[in-house]
UniProtKB/TrEMBL annotation:
Domain N-acetyltransferase residues, every copy: 8-176
Pfam families per the UniProt record, alphabetical: Acetyltransf_3
InterPro entries: Acyl_CoA_acyltransferase, GNAT_dom, N-acetyltransferase
Protein name (Swiss-Prot/TrEMBL): GNAT family N-acetyltransferase
Signal peptide from the UniProt entry: none
Length: 188
C-alpha cells in the first residue's frame, strides 16, 4: 500500500530503512510512552524484518508503513486488523504511530493518520478505528482527537513500559464519515 498526501508519502518499509528507523527508535523521547525501545540496532533491524514479513501475509491484517517526507523516513504508522484485544468486529482496526522528535508538532502524524483512516475505510472496508495511548501523552491525545476519535475507555496497567504497568486511554470512531478528498491511494 502507498498513500500520497499533500506533504507526505506513506509506503511499505524496505531493508534500506533500518538506519532511518533506528535514528528515531533509539531516541528515549520517542519511546517514552511506548512499550518498546529505546531500540538497539538489532531491535530496529528486527522491526524492519517484521514489516517485510507482514507484507507477504495473505490475507494481510497488519500494515506498518513508513511516514516519509521528501523521501526521508520520519516515522511509522500502523493499521492492525486482527492482533488486538480491543477489536470487537472483523471490520474494526487499531491505529498506532510514532514520529521522530524533530518532526513533532508540525501536523505530520495527523496528516498521515487521516490518510490511513481514509484508506482503511475506502480500500479495506474498515468501519471503526480504535487507538490507545498513555493519558499523559498529550501529543498523541491531541492527534487522536483531531482525527475525531472519542475517549471510550480507560485500561489500568495496560502497557508495561520500563518495567512499570502504565494506564491507557482507549479512543474510537466510526469511519463512515471519513472524507478521502485530496488523497492518492495506490496498492503496491
Amino acid at each position: 500500500m502507498e498513500i500520497i498526501t499533500e506533504r507526505l508519502r506513506l509506503r511499505e518499509f524496505t531493508i534500506s530503512d533500518v538506519g532511518s528507523v533506528h535514528e528515531f527508535a533509539s531516541d528515549p523521547r520517542v519511546c517514552a510512552f511506548v512499550e518498546w525501545g529505546p531500540n538497539t540496532l538489532a531491535d530496529s533491524t528486527a522491526f524492519i524484518s517484521d514489516c517485510l514479513a507482514e507484507q507477504l501475509v495473505h490475507p494481510r491484517t497488519t500494515w506498518t508503513l513508513a511516514i516519509t517526507q521528501d523521501a526521508q523516513v520520519i516515522g511509522s504508522i500502523a493499521l492492525m486488523c486482527g492482533a488486538s484485544n480491543l477489536l470487537e468486529h472483523a471490520s474494526d482496526a487499531e491505529i498506532g504511530f510514532v514520529l521522530r522528535a524533530e518532526s513533532w508538532v508540525l501536523g505530520y502524524v495527523t496528516e498521515a493518520a487521516t490518510a490511513l483512516a481514509a484508506a482503511a475505510g475506502e480500500k479495506l472496508g474498515i468501519t471503526r478505528l480504535l487507538a490507545t495511548c498513555r493519558p499523559d501523552n498529550i501529543g498523541s491525545v491531541r492527534v487522536l482527537e483531531k482525527l475525531g476519535l472519542l475517549r471510550i475507555g480507560y485500561l489500568r496497567g495496560h502497557k508495561l513500559i520500563d518495567g512499570v504497568a502504565r494506564d491507557s486511554v482507549v479512543f474510537a470512531r466510526s469511519l463512515a464519515s471519513v472524507n478521502p478528498a485530496a488523497l492518492s491511494i495506490r496498492e503496491a
